[in-house]
Amino acid sequence: MVISGEPLQVIGDRVKGEIRQRLEVTPPVSLNFPDDLELFAPGTSRPVVVEVTSARAGATGTLHLETPAGWKVIPATHAFSLTNYNETARFTFTLTAPTNTTTARILATADIDGTSYHNRRVEIHHDHIPSLLLQPPARLRALSIDLAIRGHQVGYLPGAGDSVAECLQRMGYAVTFLTDADLTADHLRSFDAVVIGIRAFNTRADLSQNLSGLFAYVEGGGNVIVQYNTSDGLQNTRLAPYELKLSHDRVTDETAPVTLLVPDHPAFTTPNRIVPSDFDGWVQERGLYFASEWDDHFTPLLACNDPGEPPKTGSLLVAHYGRGYFVYTGLSWFRELPEGVPGAYRLFANLISLGK
Fold first, then answer.
1. C-alpha–C-alpha distance, residues 200 and 159, integer Å
2. Could you list the residue range(s) of the whole structural domain that residue 80 is in?
3. In this structure, is residue 7 part of a structural domain?
4. Alpha-helical runs (H) found in the chain
5. Which of 173, 233, 286, 287 has fewest C-beta within 10 Å?
6. Higher pLDDT, 133 or 138
7. Does residue 311 have a cis peptide bond before it, meaning omega lies within 30 degrees of 0?
8. Residue 84 carries which DSSP code?
């Protein structure tokens, strides 16, 4: 007998009526790293947590981490026994990085009755589409990096949503989330830098009313780093203490050569020496919504371009304003930092360190 179509699970819901969804075949357990990125100083150790969740009662086995050469794990395995369905247990390994700068993908593995399982469980539920179950490998991005930072306190004003603030915390900064009302010189004085989240000037209607306090903070010796905003839909065309206009310019080739226009600028020397190889391993793109016009107080620091296009120099601009620094950058930090790109961490640390 031939049965066309795919097996479906039929669920009766008192509100939505009959719900039909795919019948999914799942392993006995799913695995998850609560933190999917960890930073290590070369040769140092950190605890790494793995969650094991049962898909059926009585899931028993052992858990271990698969690592590249040079990385060490203690203990070699953890035994688990989950009595109930959907029961979760957490296990901690100590992971030690090699003594050189490198990135690794650490794979969690559960061995049950002679079979190995590596899957996460990601459920997607929306009323307008059928429910989806994704089961990608449970991997941890681990970065062994020789990273120097200066300063400690960073204020972060969220925009449209990114995980840059969490990445700054992994670097060793104490991050305080800000509101528009916090943008006064007195309130910001305690911060070594203030970072503006992606598209904040597009999404925060009250930001323009508080720019004077932000600029006063810079003038008094502060440091502000503004990440990319789209040129369309700005709540206010004023983005900086000096004239600055955005464009649709971007570089989509993540391998596009990058030229350091001012190699001895503090953004490239302090506290980490930035070289062209720091732009190796970037993902998806170099950046987007670069500046196209700017006041002479701004210094363009980088040039890059997609194949067949002229060099674009508006991806990273730094200006002195009073005793402080103001930075606009269209580099795609919101992609590179969560992906554990070493050079992105080193350069962003330098931007936070300007003036220190």
1. 4
2. 24-144
3. no
4. 164-171, 185-188, 200-203, 211-219, 266-269, 333-336, 342-352
5. 233
6. 138
7. no
8. S
| pLDDT cut 90: percent of the chain above it | 87
Rounded distance, CA 297 to CA 300, Å? 10
Whether 124 and 186 share a structural domain:
no
By the 8 A CB rule, do 251 and 285 touch?
Answer: yes
Contacts of 259 (CB under 8 A, 6+ apart): 276, 302, 303, 304, 311
User: Residue 180 burial (CB < 10 Å; 0-12/13-18/19+)?
Assistant: middle
Q: Which of 261, 266, 263, 226 lies closest to 246 in space, CA to CA? A: 226
Q: Are residues 78 and 164 in the same domain?
A: no
Q: What is the pTM of this model?
A: 0.91
Q: Are 111 and 176 in the same domain?
A: no
Whether residue 12 lies inside any domain: the answer is no
Number of domains in the chain: 2
- When pLDDT is cut at 50, 70 and 90, the band that residue 65 belongs to is very high
